[in-house]
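Please fill in the sequence for the structure shown.

STRUCTURE ENCODING:
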């Protein structure tokens, strides 16, 4: 994008006045000059444009909900699948334990056979020299047999429980996988519709910029919000891209704002309470909005696809004022955000530190 400083032809007296005013932020009571980046709009556009903008917002929110549900379902399915794997591993361990017990019994029997001259334990008991020897042999045999049988029974019960747990976990995982497949299809369908609506919205915005006439405020049905702070970020979910002061071939000088990489149609928010002093389209910023805030500072929101406010309107923190796009000198969908000491281009200050000073960390 190019943030070109606009030069006006004015009389010498006005030049002196501007030189004085340019050195400080304008106060909240001062009125800005008329915009110089494109025609203002004072109309209330509606009809198809309104429906399309509202549809993009609706699909935007539905896609976010569908994505959240899908991700939650995937996490639940992964957890259930891990539980099934753990049950399977425990079951394998239990089966190996039972096999080891059987192997131990075989070794004991073989050892008894070798140490008793080939006679089984029962035969040795029958050939005992005394009743005491008989009883001792019987008791030892019974105790060993009982201990082994009890161990095998316990392991068999454990094996049965683990097998049931494994089957239950596997069945639940399969149910979750089926549900997630359905959620994935729903998510893909919503995203396809959203992408189509975004393209149409951007097409209308490009046509408006080419004609040099904004379509007017497209009112958006914003959900109830309860911001506890006086300042917020200009978009809710974003990735920061080009920063203030960075260089590049797209700008005549250094970059004058902070870019937020967001898809077309993303709701753009007023960062704080203020008044709309400019709504224009055309020029390097495409469709743009400028707000005036207390203390004489201004914020700019550029490359929009639609606007949701009219010039002169009062806004509150977090209010949706438009939708992001890629109009004007833009290489892709994003919001160009500036903070200024005047409403005009060329008076920008670092927006990241400006917001940070107001409690907003990007």
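FILLED IN BY: designer on duty
SEQUENCE:
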């Amino acid at each position: 994008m190019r943030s070109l400083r606009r030069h006006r032809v004015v009389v010498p007296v006005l030049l002196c006045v501007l030189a004085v005013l340019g050195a400080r932020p304008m106060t909240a009571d001062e009125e800005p000059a008329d915009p110089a980046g494109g025609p203002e709009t004072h109309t209330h556009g509606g009809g198809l444009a309104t429906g399309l903008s509202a549809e993009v917002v609706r699909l935007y929110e539905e896609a976010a909900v569908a994505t959240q549900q899908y991700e939650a379902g995937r996490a639940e399915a992964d957890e259930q699948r891990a539980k099934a794997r753990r049950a399977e591993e425990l079951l394998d361990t239990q089966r190996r334990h039972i096999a080891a017990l059987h192997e131990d019994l075989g070794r004991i029997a073989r050892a008894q056979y070798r140490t008793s001259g080939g006679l089984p334990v029962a035969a040795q008991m029958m050939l005992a020299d005394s009743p005491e020897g008989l009883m001792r042999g019987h008791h030892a045999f019974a105790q060993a047999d009982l201990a082994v049988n009890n161990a095998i029974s316990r392991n068999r019960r454990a094996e049965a429980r683990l097998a049931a747990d494994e089957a239950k976990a596997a069945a639940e995982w399969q149910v979750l996988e089926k549900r997630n497949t359905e959620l994935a299809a729903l998510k893909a369908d919503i995203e396809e519709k959203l992408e189509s609506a975004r393209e149409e919205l951007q097409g209308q915005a490009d046509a408006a910029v080419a004609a040099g006439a904004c379509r007017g405020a497209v009112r958006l049905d914003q959900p109830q919000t309860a911001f506890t702070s006086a300042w917020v970020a200009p978009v809710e979910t974003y990735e920061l891209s080009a920063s203030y002061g960075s260089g590049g071939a797209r700008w005549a000088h250094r970059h004058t704002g902070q870019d937020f990489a967001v898809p077309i149609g993303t709701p753009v928010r007023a960062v704080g309470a203020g008044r709309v002093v400019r709504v224009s389209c055309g020029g390097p910023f495409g469709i743009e909005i400028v707000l005036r805030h207390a203390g004489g500072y201004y914020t700019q929101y550029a490359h929009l696809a639609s606007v949701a406010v009219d010039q002169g309107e009062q806004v509150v923190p977090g209010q949706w004022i438009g939708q992001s796009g890629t109009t004007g000198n833009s290489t892709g969908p994003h919001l160009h955000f500036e903070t200024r000491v005047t409403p005009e281009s060329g008076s920008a200050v670092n927006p990241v530190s400006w917001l940070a000073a107001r409690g907003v960390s990007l």
